[in-house]
Specification:
The structure is a single chain. Helix 2 crosses helix 4, helix 5 packs across helix 6 and helix 6 packs across helix 7. The chain starts with 7 loop residues before the first helix and ends in a 10-residue tail after the last strand. It has two domains: 65 residues, no CATH class; 193 residues, 3-Layer(aba) Sandwich (Rossmann fold), CATH 3.40.50.150. The chain is an alpha/beta fold. A seven-stranded mixed beta sheet has the order 6-2-1-7-8-10-9. It has a three-stranded antiparallel beta sheet with strand order 3-5-4. The structure holds S-adenosylmethionine. S-adenosylmethionine binds next to loops. The site of S-adenosylmethionine (SAM) has 25 residues, from loops.
């Protein structure tokens, strides 16, 4: 029997959508119900009415919403999740950056938004080190990785991974070069860990305290959980934060179609990147 009748489902899904952007249609009802039951058990609350009352109360509201949002976010990720997109970065984008970083003081800034447990930004860090060498990446690149969930960022900073994180297309040689065996799986080496800075950031918040002027923003497999107006709004903000000529990377099954025409499409073999056009007539970055 369902514990989550209307109007509670509507109220809870609305609260969560406002807080996180994550949209729950009727097909997600059982998922949400299971998460709410978990919270009720933890809190020792027997009835849904009581839980909703608890959640509505000013004193508990913010804290409880945080707990619930930790439980509803999907953190699925792994190393080298979309190798074709990484090839496109290596072939199309890295050579341009290579030219730029020869200029004194030039830096390249990369933001992985919705980074989950860190496999995505660490994969990018490995790719950069393979291409440019460690010293150049350390001195000339900034890698910021953010997520809504504090618990998942704790895991990202720890950087110890089980087999599920390696089900992508990580070249065998990288395992030996960048990981050491650990009793809980594999531990990423300090050299790569130190290249990525993690920070909590909710994409639904009106303030993103990360500054502007990014060369690449990755937002892979995050926007799929949001409704259309939220997606459109976030994409506009990404556009504004990118430097002219900067790139946006979405997940394999995602596209900008129907949300914005602002970006130039760069297609590769089995992958796409989106580029903020240069202001006028300038050479693409
Ligand atoms: C499916 S994972 C994607 C991880 C990685 N980008 C990838 O493609 O492998 C989605 C991540 O987005 C985060 N997320 C969901 N809503 C968010 C929001 N409003 N702000 C920031 N991160 C959010 C979740 O916590 C989760 O870690």
């Amino acid at each position: 029997m369902s514990i989550l009748p209307e109007p509670y489902f509507t109220e809870l899904s609305h609260l969560l959508q406002q807080a996180t952007g994550i949209y729950f249609d009727a097909s997600k009802k059982y998922f949400l119900e299971a998460r709410v039951q978990l919270r009720m058990r933890t809190l020792g609350i027997a009835s849904l009415e009581e839980y909703v009352r608890y959640l509505r109360q000013g004193a508990h509201r913010a804290q409880e919403l945080k707990q619930l949002q930790e439980l509803v976010a999907v953190h699925e990720t792994y190393f080298f999740r979309h190798p074709q997109q990484m090839d496109l970065l290596r072939q199309e984008v890295f050579p341009r950056w290579g030219e730029r970083i020869r200029r004194p003081g030039a830096r390249v800034r990369i933001w992985s938004s919705g980074c989950s447990s860190g496999e995505e930004p660490y994969s990018i860090a490995i790719l950069l080190v393979e291409h440019f060498g460690y010293e150049l990446v350390r001195d000339r690149f900034e890698l910021l990785a953010t997520d809504l969930s504090e618990a998942i960022l704790h895991k990202a900073r720890r950087a110890i991974y089980g087999p599920a994180s390696f089900r992508g297309h990580m070249p065998e040689a990288y395992l030996g070069r960048y990981f050491r065996t650990h009793r809980q799986g594999r531990a990423l080496c300090e050299e790569i860990r130190s290249l990525v800075r993690f920070q909590t950031l909710n994409l639904k918040d009106s303030l993103w305290p990360i500054g502007a002027g990014w060369d690449l923003i990755l937002c892979r497999n995050v926007l799929i959980y949001f409704d259309a107006p939220t997606k459109q709004h976030i994409l506009r903000r990404f556009f504004e934060l990118l430097l002219p000529g900067g790139y946006l990377a979405l997940g394999e099954s995602e596209s900008l179609y129907g949300y914005t025409d602002d970006f130039r499409v760069i297609s590769g073999k089995g992958a796409m990147l989106y580029q903020r056009p240069q202001a006028t007539g300038g050479e693409q970055r």
